[in-house]
Design a protein that fits this description.
- The protein is of the alpha+beta class and 387 residues long.
- The chain has 14 helices and 12 strands.
- A 5-stranded antiparallel beta sheet has the order 1-2-3-5-4. A 3-stranded antiparallel beta sheet has the order 10-11-12, with helices on one face.
- Helix 12 packs antiparallel against helix 13 and helix 13 runs antiparallel to helix 14.
- It is globular, with a radius of gyration of 22 Å.
- The protein starts with a helix and ends in a 6-residue tail after the last helix.
- About 5% of the residues have low confidence.
């Protein structure tokens, strides 16, 4: 059976049963979490309907004490994105197999530090991150971890989106993490989970003219000042993930489906699975054999050059985050733009899209391009109802 079919079967079987599986593990003392009691005992956390459009993840709309939430549960290790090493489906039997009974707190901290070092590279703030994760896992706040608490947080950290959510939780444009139970986690809802409201299913794309979809999306899109506000938020996210306390992060799937916004038109990254740490991307590319640049691609959009003399990938990604975001925003931001702004906006976006990420000395130039674009937009919407 092919991997795609196995994933689909797994989704069909386990998407409706995820709550039952989590609660069974919880009642048997296998897992723990800040949301387990609400999910399995109080019944105040409920799953409404399955929103998954991919066989690689489970996403539900839900209610927690009558307030809307999003509930996610990973089927597989999402760090293994397209272009990265293949991964097997996450099996229930091995999902909560670590740490083993008898592991001390110091040993578990060392395990976690080593894992975070592999994920983010050597960073001075990893010790503080370990302490924060331990505190998060200590559901009953007794200053120690039960085996169920340790197994649950260990499983969650192997879901890339959860790991990035924890690392970027203090950032404005990352959805807030509200709780977890086993490898299920709860986040704040977004009013809009994609830049565009209408998406054509892959099987219909050959039949539906792209111009028609584009026209409908333009008609459904927010007013231009609100799109400008969303854009400013996305540019701020680019700043947030560059040289932070846990290193830099790369957008390896610049997809409008991953960029959402709330009722106030504040940008939030609805799906972090397309983001990867620079350390993880470099580790994947280092020593990788290649014939062309296409062989040096992590995810969909993180491509490095192939050194054809030694037939190995270089580790510097060619296109920086800012260029990918500007390419994503061109149509979204230009249609309906004010006439007195459109010319400058086109020029700045054109400059932005052509940025290269190969030379470290270009960082100042990238920052200048980003700030010029933000300033241009802010000047137009500041002191209005849209600011």
């Amino acid at each position: 059976m092919s991997r795609a079919i196995r994933r689909l079967v797994h989704l069909v079987l386990f998407c409706p049963l995820s709550k039952g599986l989590q609660c069974d593990h919880y009642k048997r003392g296998v897992i723990a979490g800040s949301s387990c009691k609400a999910l399995c005992e109080q019944r105040t956390l409920t799953l409404q309907h399955c929103m998954s459009t991919s066989s690689q993840s489970q996403v539900y709309a839900g209610l927690w004490k009558e307030r809307p939430v999003v509930i996610k549960c990973g089927i597989e290790d999402h760090r293994k994105v397209d272009g990265a090493p293949d991964s097997a489906l996450r099996r229930e039997g091995s999902l909560f197999d670590k740490p083993t009974r008898g592991t001390s707190m110091d040993e578990f901290k060392e395990m976690m530090h080593a894992f975070l070092k592999t994920s983010f590279g050597e960073q001075p703030s990893l010790g503080a991150l370990v302490d924060r994760i331990i505190s998060m896992a200590d559901v009953n706040q007794d200053a120690k971890l039960s085996l169920a608490e340790a197994k649950s947080i260990w499983a969650l950290l192997h879901i890339n989106e959860f790991l990035l959510m924890v690392a970027l939780q203090e950032k404005e444009h990352t959805p807030k993490l509200l709780g977890f139970c086993g490898d299920l986690y709860v986040t704040e809802p977004l009013g809009h989970t994609a830049l565009y409201r209408l998406e054509t299913p892959p099987y219909l794309r050959p039949l539906v003219p792209e111009a028609l979809i584009s026209g409908v999306n333009r008609w459904l899109a927010p007013a231009w000042p609100r799109r400008a506000r969303i854009t400013i938020g996305l540019l701020e996210f680019v700043e947030e993930v560059f040289h932070g306390p846990y290193g830099s992060f790369l957008i390896c799937d610049a997809n409008p489906r991953h960029v959402g916004y709330n009722a106030k038109y504040d940008c939030k990254i609805a799906d972090l699975r397309g983001v990867a740490s620079e350390a993880a991307v470099r580790a994947y590319l280092k020593g990788r054999r290649c014939k062309t640049n296409a062989d040096c691609t992590y995810g969909r959009d993180c491509t490095a050059t192939c050194d054809r003399l030694v037939k190995q990938c270089n580790t510097d990604v060619v296109q920086p985050n800012l260029a990918k975001v500007c390419a994503l925003l061109q149509d979204f931001l230009l249609f309906g733009a004010p006439a007195d702004l459109r010319g400058d906006l086109e020029r700045q976006l054109r400059t932005c899209v052509t940025l290269s990420g190969l030379a470290s000395q270009m960082e100042v130039h990238h920052s200048l391009v980003l700030n010029n674009l933000k300033t241009l937009l802010w000047k137009k919407i500041s002191n209005t109802q849209y600011s």
